[in-house]
TrEMBL record:
Superkingdom classification of source: Bacteria
CDD domains referenced in this protein's UniProt entry, alphabetically: ABC_Carb_Monos_I, ABC_Carb_Monos_II
Ranges of residues in domain ABC transporter: 15-250, 267-510
Pfam families in the record: ABC_tran
Phylogenetic lineage: Bacteria, Pseudomonadati, Pseudomonadota, Alphaproteobacteria, Hyphomicrobiales
SUPFAM superfamilies (alphabetical): P-loop containing nucleoside triphosphate hydrolases
Listed name of the protein: ABC transporter ATP-binding protein
Length: 510
């Protein structure tokens, strides 16, 4: 069969999950869960971090075999043993992270993803077919561009197009907009919604953003601690109803008010320049001072040097030139200096950048302190029971959902890994805090907690540098905002006077 020649499959598919239970050893991640996604509907799946959303969709897609229960596709029961069988039924999934091969063109990525790709590809013919396919699609993407050269928004559109090209009629989207700007997110979801309304597609979207649920979804299902907590028509619900169903009787952390004077400059960057992995300039002559009791937010589209800047401050990348001072002392990001200056780091992708995945939650929380009194004496004898007790206290305080303190941290849901790093980094005294997209992928209860912790650190006098792609977060927390574009700081404003349109313009390099 030649994909591009046949018309787009009409007929969106409905999927029902019936009495599904999934156990990992003695732990029940899904407990008798029901989900009904009507054909031709846009369905949102909500739940706190660790509620079981990913587990549920992985069972539908055949990545996991459920302990009990079944899946109906188009009203018929199907035993989906692996993702290939799910694909054959017309089910597809788009992830938070990109899966396209960056060194290949968009066209190559699409054609080579097919199961029936011939040994020798007739590219002239394939491109003609691709162009015909694209002409029927709501998104336009540059077929001949290399994936590494296109923006995050275009990449996410390509990921979705790939699914449509592969004739998927039921699409699961796992937090699809976390890599997009709000404008791009609305564009992509709006186009998908149009396909749903036209009856070509059914969508099941995992998200933490109520705004997206309200704007694009018809129905919603809410999980809490592995159980079905509620479901209904979005039109009959408010964000507040959904939030309460998500967290049950738990209390939301309330952000403390902004208090205290802004002090002396504490963290000072002077003409800092750093290269990326390919040797190109990523951070270009950045000068910036952050005062005690001040949160300075760095706004910018991902990939404009923010990551390299944070890596230099964290001692994971050498600066090419320029200087960093903390309290007037030259700072070279050694572990000793970080400790002396009470510097804390909340890096991106904490499981990769701030944890040892195979080690326990308790050990990961104890990392920072384990070779200091009271946990060690003489620097070598580790008093395991003392740091263990402290870790257990922090697990409770930061509401980290883990089966036991000895569970490997890699078995925790994303949000709970983030909380564990937060417990470690903010559990002691903090004078300088560097946070990079600290709430990426977190549910609203966790976001509220992390925002409250960052504000509390600022109120206690810490100098906070907050790098984020989320403008709402920056405006809520920052005292001052700067915009980073192509490695340079191109705009600065007090957060209270910041103009969103102007910030957006600078983020786009205008
Ligand atoms: N392979 C696994 N082995 C053991 N436990 C697991 C495994 N996968 C998930 N879990 C556990 O199942 C629970 C549900 O996790 P899941 O990833 O489905 O949550 P989620 O709702 O998708 O969370 P998040 O919003 O943080 O992504 C968590 O407590 C997690 O620790």
């Amino acid at each position: 069969m030649i994909i591009g020649e046949t018309p787009l499959p009409s007929g969106a598919l409905g999927v029902d999950v019936v009495a599904m239970t999934m156990r990992f050893g003695g732990f029940t991640a899904l407990d008798n869960v029901e989900l009904k996604v009507r054909p031709g509907s846009f369905h949102a799946l909500l739940g706190e971090n660790g509620a079981g959303k990913s587990t549920l969709v992985k069972c539908i897609m055949g990545y996991y075999r459920a302990t009990q229960g079944g899946v109906l596709v188009g009203g018929r029961e199907q035993a989906i043993a692996n993702p290939k069988e799910a694909h054959a039924l017309g089910l597809g999934m788009v992830y938070q992270h990109f899966t396209l091969v960056p060194a290949m063109t968009v066209a190559e990525n699409l054609v080579l993803a097919r199961d029936d790709v011939p040994a020798v590809v007739d590219w002239t013919k394939e491109k003609k077919l691709l162009a015909a396919f694209l002409s029927r699609m709501p998104f336009k993407v540059p077929l001949d561009a290399k994936v590494s050269d296109i923006s995050a928004g275009e990449r996410q559109k390509c990921e979705i197009l790939k699914q449509l090209y592969l004739k998927r009629r039921f699409l699961i989207l796992d937090e699809p907009t976390s890599v997009l700007t709000p404008g791009e997110a609305d564009e992509v979801l709006g186009m998908l919604r149009a396909m749903v309304v036209a009856g070509d597609l059914t969508i099941l979207m995992i998200t933490h953003k109520f705004r997206e649920v309200m704007a694009f979804a018809d129905d919603v299902t809410i999980l809490r601690r592995g159980k079905l907590a509620g479901h209904g028509r979005v039109a009959d619900l408010t964000p507040d109803d959904m939030a309460r169903t998500m967290i049950g009787a738990e209390q939301l952390t309330v952000q403390p008010p902004r208090v205290g004077e802004v002090g002396e400059p504490r963290l000072e960057l002077t003409k800092l320049t750093a290269l990326d992995d390919a040797g190109a300039i990523a951070v270009h002559g950045v000068s910036l001072a952050v005062r005690g009791g001040e949160i300075v937010g760095i706004a910018g589209v991902s990939g404009n040097g923010q990551r390299q800047l944070v890596e230099v401050l964290a001692g994971q990348r050498e600066a090419e030139s320029g200087e960093i001072h903390i309290r007037g002392d030259l700072y070279s990001a050694s572990r000793k200096e970080m400790r002396r200056h009470k510097m804390s780091l909340l890096p991106e992708e904490p499981l990769k950048n701030a944890c040892v995945g195979g080690m326990s939650v308790a050990d990961n929380i104890a990392f920072r302190e384990f070779d200091r009194a009271p946990f060690a004496s003489g620097g070598w004898w580790l008093n395991r029971s003392a740091f263990r007790k402290d870790a257990e206290r922090k697990i409770g305080l930061y509401k980290i959902k883990t089966r036991t303190p000895d569970t490997p941290i890699s078995a925790l849901s994303g949000g709970n890994v983030q909380r564990a790093v937060l417990a470690r980094e903010l559990g002691g005294e903090v004078e300088v805090l560097i946070a990079a997209n600290p709430c990426f992928g977190l549910d609203f209860a966790a976001v509220a907690q992390i925002h409250a912790e960052i504000m509390a650190a600022r109120n206690r006098g810490a100098a906070v540098l907050l790098v984020s792609e989320d403008l709402d977060e920056l405006l809520e927390l920052s005292d001052r905002l700067v915009v980073m574009f192509h490695g340079q700081l191109v705009h600065e404003a007090r957060a209270s006077e910041a103009n969103l349109t102007e910030i957006g313009r600078h983020m786009a390099g205008h």
